[in-house]
UniProtKB/TrEMBL annotation:
Belongs to the pirin family. Residues 15-84 form the Pirin N-terminal domain. It holds the Pfam family Pirin. It comes from Shewanella corallii. PANTHER family: PIRIN, PIRIN-RELATED. Residues 138-241 form the Pirin C-terminal domain. This is Pirin family protein. It comes from the Bacteria. Signal peptide: none annotated.
Length: 247
């Protein structure tokens, strides 16, 4: 899934974990529009806000940051939590964060589809650009037999997940069926990769693509570093309080 390390598709209606560190990667929250209520978000950069249904929050942890998220009382969050790898040259960079509200995201729509351009670009439309990795995120719904076309750039990895319904993806003349709850990953090194998404019945899907890093890495929980030595160092830095805190 390069540059993705992990994707967690979740619903949450109560606090599940406390404040926790990240380093060497970006922690990305993609809220779906059917989320209910508010998702409280804090980080050691001093940001504190409530994410609304459809919002995005991108924490590029770099050399290290502390993060916490939890539904407000009475809320039910439906979202993705995505770990996006950083190249070795950025793993020690200063942390930064990006909030994109759902109200500002471009929407591509016809009678066949409605696709939110959460980040990046598609079909000549430009959305907000990711802080790192050239990432595009599409959150789409298709009508029965509706089709949507998107072209991933060369040297990108692509990850597609069917949230509801059965999705068909045509890649270079070959069709792949993805039932609800399943995912597929694609990679194209030499040239742009045209993708055709088609719904077998109404479908809700999400697609993430980004620049493939093609570097070895070591993941240990919320840390994604280039080697074991860096993992040990960042764990010590966290224990020493050097990754910041949430007061």
């Amino acid at each position: 899934m390069d540059p993705l390390v992990m994707v967690d598709h979740f619903t949450m209606d109560r606090p599940t974990f406390g404040a926790h560190p990240h380093a060497g990667m970006s922690a990305v929250t993609v809220m779906f529009e059917d989320s209910e209520g508010l998702f409280h978000n804090q980080d050691s950069l001093g940001n504190e806000l409530d994410l609304l249904p459809g919002d995005l929050y991108w924490l590029k942890a770099g050399q290290g940051a502390v993060h916490d998220e939890a539904p407000r009382p009475g809320s039910k969050t439906h979202a993705l939590q995505v770990f996006v790898n950083l190249p070795a040259t950025l793993k020690q960079s200063a942390p930064e964060a990006l909030h994109v509200s759902a109200a500002t995201m471009p929407i591509l729509a016809t009678q066949d589809y409605r696709v939110r351009l959460v980040l990046g670009s598609s079909n000549g439309v430009e959305g907000v650009q990711a802080p790192a990795g050239g990432v595009t995120i599409l959150d789409g719904t298709l009508s029965n037999k509706g089709k949507f076309r998107h072209t991933a750039k060369a040297s990108q990895g692509v990850w597609v997940h069917a949230i509801d319904g059965t999705l068909s993806v045509n890649v270079q003349g070959e069709s792949l069926t993805i039932p609800a709850g399943k995912s597929a990953a694609f990679r194209n090194d030499q040239q742009d990769l045209p993708l055709i998404f088609e719904g077998e019945g109404p479908v809700h899907f999400v697609m993430l693509s980004g620049d493939a890093i093609q570097e070895p890495f070591v993941q240990q929980g919320p840390f994604v570093m280039s080697n074991e030595r860096e993992i040990v160092a960042v764990q010590q830095a966290y224990q020493d309080g050097l990754l910041g805190s949430i007061d």
